[in-house]
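Methods — Computational structure assignment.
A single polypeptide chain was analysed. Its primary sequence is given first, followed by the predicted tertiary structure written as structure tokens.
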Amino acid sequence: MNDHKNKLNRSGWLTIRQPIVLAGLMLTMNMSFMPHAGAQSTGADKILKAMSDYVTSQKTLSVTYDSDVEVITPNLQKIQFAGSGQVQLSRPDKLRATRIGGYANVEIVFDGKMLTVNNKDGNTFAQIESSGSIDDLIDTLRDKNAIAAPGADLLFSQPFDVLMADVVEMAHIGQGVIDGVECEHLAFRNQDTDWQIWIEAGARPIPRKYVITSKAVTGAPQYTLRIKEWKTEVPTDAFAFNAPQGAKKIALGELSDIDEVPRGTVTAGEKK
């Protein structure tokens, strides 16, 4: 899990870095942080496990989302960039994810054999052979292609194990309301990151909001994911890539200007 989380710290959903450019907490008296390894539990792990089990039981998913990614300028000003997109998946080995922001319009398509990264604004795309599951794809994107996808932790076949692997403290903060939906609010701590998740209360425990705070980066920038629509219907042709008219196929490393943070505008904060 350390590899997963460490690569999330300054990135947004399907944000690509080089070499490929892809109201405060109300703390109640009965809230306490407990070590994950301890015998006692605040119940946060049980709620998270219920979410994980429910999400993985959905063999096909179509989700729309909004995301925000923060960066720190050299003079320590915090700047936030916003985007929106959609994720469609069919377990175990098919995925389509799109992200559009003020500076990029990108999609990733994976059919179990081929990975396509499509820069819609530049009308260019790249393809590499990549077989395996969605889990394998996420690891490949992060480890071999420098594509950080923090929200993708929720797409693993066992998200509970991935999310909890390096947790040192956790708490069930209480309730919250996201887009008019009552949610259970959970908070977790790792060595380098704090993260929070809001899970819909009731019979459909889906994630509604996910926030990662990078404690090891000056200014503690955050990545925020807000899940909007959650459906289980996916078109049968969702995972077929058809190159747009006039699109140019290039090498994966040659794709540029597909980062939600415009290159040269700001730089990430240095570690403390």
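Note: DSSP finds four helices and 14 strands in the chain.
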